[in-house]
Amino acid sequence: MLFRKRTLILMLIDALLINLAAFGSFYLRFDEGIPLDYYQTYYHTAIGGTILYLAVFYVFGLYNRLWQYASTGELLSIVYAVSVGTGGTVAAVYFYGLSNADTLSYIRMPHTAAVLLWLAMVFLIGGSRFIWRILQENAFDRHVPGSQKQVLIVGAGDAGVLAARELKNRNYRDGRPIGFIDDNHSKQKLQLLGIPVLGTRLDIARVVKGHNVDEVIIAMPSASGEAVREIVQICEKLGVILKIMPGVYDIISGDMNVKPIRQVQVEDLLGRDPVSVDLEEVAGYVAGETVIITGAGGSIGSEICRQIARFNPGRLVLLGHGENTIFDIEQELRSEHPGIDYITEILDVKDREKVFLIFERYKPGVVFHAAAHKHVPLMERNPEEALKNNVVGTQNLAEAADEVKVKTFVSISTDKAVNPTSVMGATKRTSEMIIQSLDLRSQTKFVAVRFGNVLGSRGSVIPTFKRQIAQGGPVTVTHPDMVRYFMTIPEAAQLVIQAGAMARGGEIFILDMGKPVKIVDLAKDLIRLSGFEPDVDIKIQFTGIRPGEKLFEELLTAEEGVTSTKHSRIFVAKPNNIDVKLLEELTHIIRERGSFLTRDEVIKLLQTVIPAFRKKTEKVVVNQ
């Protein structure tokens, strides 16, 4: 069938409305009825207009839309279609009258009738379409019992509207919105979707008590961490359920979508601005390339895999030491992005022969090196392994990349590499030096990206705190003044990928980590979000600084300095002079005696390339 049944029914209805509009336009033009002289004009207008309007409506796609979801875009389509149809009808009647002037006694369409025809068509066609939206918005609301839970939405903007509609789309099973809270004074005492704005943030307690509110939804995607934390604390004292709508955007792809309304998480309290990524720039160096990602099963590595897969690489090679994590990310990627060629390789980056074999086999264009030993106390107890993995492993990968002429090599570093006090930090600083030294003589653009702690990564404070809270406490914090920079996993991965697009060679990119966060404050926030009171229901216990730790981390040495880039969240450290000969001697010794190196030998080796390392703190207890 050329037309579906639904289309035919709509066209029949439109035909009736077109004739009604044509009759109405002439009837309104002539107060006492249509004069006999204009009957022929009216007939030609009705017949020709019906054919022309239906054809135009079909071309403009008015018969393949779901009108129960109609918005301003659909209204504009109706206006455009009616305007074209009216213009065509008037022109057709005019030229028909000219061509038949000898046989027809009188045929001319009054200008006023043409204007009335346009207005009547917009009203009737638009009204017939939007009646479905009106019915959906209002007619059945009173008949849906839904939940008796009373919901207050904080934020009377776009996100607040989406939150209210989300509740409605669920037939109010998850609660019924009774009002909005918004700090914009111009919105006070107004209504949004028929729901009143009941006050500002200062009125939350009054509104919750006065309206028996059971649940509060925070719908402010751009709110600061302090604002979210304040609302959280108010709602915790009131004993209401608290949820959040984290955003209305997808950072990487730019697609607009509604993320699920969910429980507030500690990441929301950071209040970080969304990351903006230059899609064209990133796609320009990733699309169509063979991309190797080391540590692909880890927290950062797996997220880089997810983000890179969105830019249509020609082939994605996942390298990792743990078979289970590599299996998991491969299955996820094949499900989410099935059109990409995925290859998995289980290898240890310390295995030089296997690394060179892999690079020769796949000849990648881009490499992201995320494989590393990262846990500070663990590496204090196993310093030789930190040397072998973080230093020699990086050198293996970098030299293999140089040999096959990789275009861009991005190594993941850490703020612990700045003025390091830990073995882990010192080995990561050494790996930065290896990258920079190799860039001096290679066609490959070697860069490192330095950032702080990542919220939610395996072994980080958040999973540890959650486990301790689930066990009833205590939550252990090393020191009351301990502060750290934090990022979310997607945020870090996206900025790493963007930094790769900006690489010219030899840079150490530094990511803007925002304000440092006190670890004890993070612990208290997480305890409260879990429904407990810090030091009342769940105790906080201070255990003392662990080996290699500092009270605060730095992102730059005094010598490096920093310059800005075109991206507001990415900076470049000025390179230091690197003694290539000392680096070569260091890596040679590690290769010769790696597993047999004593703790003291490891410290002395690292001091050859980082002279200030452990000079003032030679004695470090490691049996914790």
TrEMBL record:
Stretches that traverse the bilayer: 7-30, 42-63, 75-97, 109-132
Pfam families assigned to the protein according to its UniProt record, in alphabetical order: CoA_binding_3, Polysacc_synt_2
Annotated Gene3D superfamilies: NAD(P)-binding Rossmann-like Domain
Record key words, sorted: Membrane, Transmembrane, Transmembrane helix
Highest rank taxon of the organism: Bacteria
All residue ranges annotated as the Polysaccharide biosynthesis protein CapD-like domain in the record: 291-574
CDD domains tied to this protein: UDP_invert_4-6DH_SDR_e
Family the entry assigns: Belongs to the polysaccharide synthase family.
Alphabetical list of PANTHER family matching this protein: POLYSACCHARIDE BIOSYNTHESIS PROTEIN EPSC-RELATED, UDP-N-ACETYLGLUCOSAMINE 4,6-DEHYDRATASE
Stated name of the protein: NDP-sugar epimerase, includes UDP-GlcNAc-inverting 4,6-dehydratase FlaA1 and capsular polysaccharide biosynthesis protein EpsC
